[in-house]
Amino acid sequence: MNPLQVAKNSNKDLLQGFTHYSAEQQNRYDEIWDNVPLWSVLTDNVKLSGDQIAIKDDVREFTFKQLLAEADRIAARLLQDKLIQGDRVVLQMSNTCDFAISFFSVQRAGLVPIMALPAHGIAEIRHFIDISQAKGYICDGGKDSICIAEYLEQHSNSITHIYTAVPHTKYRSLTGIGNTPFTPPKIDPDTPAIFLVSGGTTGLPKLIPRTHNDYLFNIKSCVQASNISAKDTYLAVLPAAHNFTLGCPGILGALSLGGKVVFSNEAGPDYCFELIEQNGITATALVPALAQIWTEAAEWEEANISSLRLIQVGGSKLSYSDAIDIQHVFPNALQQVFGMAEGLIACTRIGDDPETIAAKQGCPISQWDEIRIVDSEGNQVANGEEGELLTRGPYTLRGYYRAPEHNLRSFTDDGFYRSGDKVRIDENQYISVTGRIKDIVNRSGECIATDEIEEHLLSHPEIAQVAVVPVPDKHLGERIGVALICKDESLTLQDLRRFLQTKQLASFKMPDELNIVYSLPKTAVGKIDKKKVPGPDGKPWMFHELN
Ligand code: OOB
């Protein structure tokens, strides 16, 4: 078969199970999409600021020119090794320069990466491969990823190419391979450039195809909404493969402007504050639990972190009291970001009044985002009322990859994505997230939103983090379990109830059981993972057996 035919067939395979934007959307968005490959965020800057540092970690740094040269060297080799345009590869890298190098090499080769997070284990990686029929697994070469590589070697029929970023005795390494001149294959910007993985806390993650056009639009709109510029240095501290860190505006946003990205594999304030001081970091993105830790640490850490002017916080609900604390310690730096790998991003804007920034999650990054808020019947609610957020737009998916059954449930007939998030929206289009549709305890038929109780408990001065979970109960169906991290371990269930009574909470919403813990289980990106929250016996509370 000639190479052109091979590329065509491979793209055909890639597009199987991919839902395109509708023709009507395609027409409308034509004027706002750039129609170039995602890798142009890098190549555009090789021309403009080629000799400036683009990426840095604790051992190495690369200019824009060097980064592109490295990426192209590896891309040439990947294609020589008989991977072909449109092939899927699972990319599982930690936060080092190798993340950016391997990401761009895959992009330049026209391969489509599945953006696995370092915390994903064999179950998730196997699932991504089963769905996508990926041929390649590219990993950082750390202990965990080598275990996965060994597993895939033995058990996967689809994986034929395994590469590690650092030299390894058994696997091909990305270092020092290939030096042939390289011309990237022609790319159709309306086809998937990357697969993000869904962040849901139930079941295995789904694959989210993001096209060159849609993701570039996402990045550029986030750049505008967060006012970053070529002068900014972005600290990638949450996993680089997560949408927030990668493209909101994140790593790709900073690079697209000719700015610099510093990678950190550690998230603790002692390590990161040093990095901020040494590199004059100006911007970063954190989940609420981490933002809370950094804010407390800023009171006693000695490093000078005054360069930090933008702290984006998102991924789960930032409590009002934590937002106020952040604003107090980092004046004017907080930006709340409500986003999803599926698409829609909303954020507050630097310059909004501080009360709005503390209390709301922000408004959509583009005027092209369409938002509908509906009740349980699917009817639009009145302005200001609470309901489920549905959305459609130039960077929101039209279907999960190869998941027809999920897609029937997750999209309306006219292509709106059902986010499962409960929100209300004000007259300025600012969104307040009030919870998840399904995050409820059904106690004797009363449906109680867990986030309402959580929000109240977080305003208790002794309580640092909390998770309210439904616990199976023989008589009630479900009872209300509260797991919390607390400065005062002598706090009792009675104390909690008394406190909640002062908040005028109805009696059927009072917690039934309390478990004080030292830490709460987190998802791959650092959100509280309710499925794993332990009961008093240490076992996952939501799945306690009835006896
Ligand atoms: C981000 O993306 P995912 O895909 O890991 O998770 C999306 C879900 C949302 O549907 C929502 O339930 C929750 O995470 N979420 C928030 C939130 N930001 C995300 N809930 C309350 N307040 C927020 N600020 O988490 C993500 C992607 C891009 C940017 C930021 C976050």
Automatic annotation (TrEMBL):
<dbReference type="Pfam" id="PF13193">
    <property type="entry name" value="AMP-binding_C"/>
</dbReference>
<dbReference type="InterPro" id="IPR042099">
    <property type="entry name" value="ANL_N_sf"/>
</dbReference>
<protein>
    <submittedName>
        <fullName>2,3-dihydroxybenzoate-AMP ligase</fullName>
    </submittedName>
</protein>
<dbReference type="Pfam" id="PF00501">
    <property type="entry name" value="AMP-binding"/>
</dbReference>
<dbReference type="InterPro" id="IPR025110">
    <property type="entry name" value="AMP-bd_C"/>
</dbReference>
<dbReference type="GO" id="GO:0006631">
    <property type="term" value="P:fatty acid metabolic process"/>
</dbReference>
<feature type="domain" description="AMP-dependent synthetase/ligase">
    <location>
        <begin position="44"/>
        <end position="401"/>
    </location>
</feature>
<dbReference type="GO" id="GO:0031956">
    <property type="term" value="F:medium-chain fatty acid-CoA ligase activity"/>
</dbReference>
<feature type="domain" description="AMP-binding enzyme C-terminal">
    <location>
        <begin position="452"/>
        <end position="527"/>
    </location>
</feature>
<keyword id="KW-0436">Ligase</keyword>
<dbReference type="InterPro" id="IPR000873">
    <property type="entry name" value="AMP-dep_synth/lig_dom"/>
</dbReference>
<comment type="similarity">
    <text>Belongs to the ATP-dependent AMP-binding enzyme family.</text>
</comment>
<comment type="pathway">
    <text>Siderophore biosynthesis.</text>
</comment>
<dbReference type="InterPro" id="IPR045851">
    <property type="entry name" value="AMP-bd_C_sf"/>
</dbReference>
